[in-house]
């Protein structure tokens, strides 16, 4: 199974419309891949909080349209990263005045929307995403012919219980679009490997390059195998990281080193 992670440069000199067109062409160029991944909030920038409201789009908005077509043109599964999703109000009376969400879109090779995932852990403590967006509440996995993807977004990487729950739900490959800053790059690399090792799963973590809203991005997208080995790692700039994966390695690793079976906490009834 071949995966291509598109580590896009997100900077304020490019409009979201032009970046959408560029993303669509980059996806079309990956027709040799089975799975293509884009980063978190690439149309607007994960730290461009001031632009969230203006750049917010309905689920079936311009990013959806462009990515659905790009997925079907390339004939690939496409994790299209995330958008600022504008929702209708609870009453349904006025379109578009409900909460915003950081929502990921996954398309099948025929361009159909397979699943969405609303980021559960919002970044920013008492500002930014944490106050501007609603929190997702649903664990999401996506069944592909070769494997099962578990979805998470950027700051979610710091919460191991999410990944353990996805593992319990059958995930074998975590796909993590991100807009991770350079300042905490060491955490990114460490946590990506930790989530792979502790769950004996592949990690595909796709970040952004460039600088937006004054925040230099880490780049360094990474693919880690179920043993915790780094299979491929990008540099700091825009880059497509392509790697061949063997989904059978997940079951093999879990069988050869069955640490997941030795869990004692959080399981009912206790195993020992
Ligand atoms: N966009 C994000 O979720 C940023 C997360 C981050 O900077 C961190 O966890 O550190």
From TrEMBL:
<feature type="domain" description="CN hydrolase">
    <location>
        <begin position="1"/>
        <end position="247"/>
    </location>
</feature>
<dbReference type="InterPro" id="IPR036526">
    <property type="entry name" value="C-N_Hydrolase_sf"/>
</dbReference>
<dbReference type="InterPro" id="IPR001110">
    <property type="entry name" value="UPF0012_CS"/>
</dbReference>
<keyword id="KW-0378">Hydrolase</keyword>
<feature type="region of interest" description="Disordered">
    <location>
        <begin position="1"/>
        <end position="21"/>
    </location>
</feature>
<dbReference type="InterPro" id="IPR003010">
    <property type="entry name" value="C-N_Hydrolase"/>
</dbReference>
<protein>
    <submittedName>
        <fullName>Carbon-nitrogen family hydrolase</fullName>
    </submittedName>
</protein>
<dbReference type="Pfam" id="PF00795">
    <property type="entry name" value="CN_hydrolase"/>
</dbReference>
<dbReference type="GO" id="GO:0016787">
    <property type="term" value="F:hydrolase activity"/>
</dbReference>
<comment type="similarity">
    <text>Belongs to the carbon-nitrogen hydrolase superfamily. NIT1/NIT2 family.</text>
</comment>
């Amino acid at each position: 199974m071949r995966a291509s992670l598109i580590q896009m440069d997100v900077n304020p000199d490019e409009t979201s419309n032009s970046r959408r067109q560029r993303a669509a062409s980059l996806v079309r160029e990956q027709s040799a891949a089975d799975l293509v991944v884009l980063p978190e909030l690439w149309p607007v920038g994960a730290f461009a909080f001031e632009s969230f409201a203006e750049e917010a789009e309905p689920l079936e908005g311009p990013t959806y349209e462009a990515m659905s077509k790009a997925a079907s043109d390339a004939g690939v599964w496409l994790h299209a990263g995330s958008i600022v999703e504008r929702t209708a109000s609870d009453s349904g009376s006025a379109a578009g005045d409900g909460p915003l969400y950081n929502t990921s879109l996954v398309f099948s090779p025929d361009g159909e929307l397979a699943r969405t995932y609303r980021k559960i852990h919002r970044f920013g403590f008492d500002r930014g995403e944490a106050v501007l967006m609603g929190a997702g509440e649903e664990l999401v996995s996506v069944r592909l012919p070769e494997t099962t993807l578990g979805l998470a977004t950027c700051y979610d990487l710091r919460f191991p219980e999410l990944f353990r729950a996805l593992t319990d739900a059958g995930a074998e490959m975590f796909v993590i679009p991100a807009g991770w800053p350079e300042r905490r790059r060491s955490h990114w690399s460490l946590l990506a490997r930790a989530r792979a090792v502790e769950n004996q799963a592949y990690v595909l973590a796709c970040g952004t390059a460039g600088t937006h809203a004054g925040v230099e991005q880490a780049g360094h997208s990474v693919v880690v195998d179920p043993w915790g080995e780094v299979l491929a790692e990008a540099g700091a700039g825009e880059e497509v990281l392509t790697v061949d994966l063997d989904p059978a390695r997940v079951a093999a690793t879990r069988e050869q080193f069955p640490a997941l079976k030795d869990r004692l906490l959080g399981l009912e009834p206790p195993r020992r």
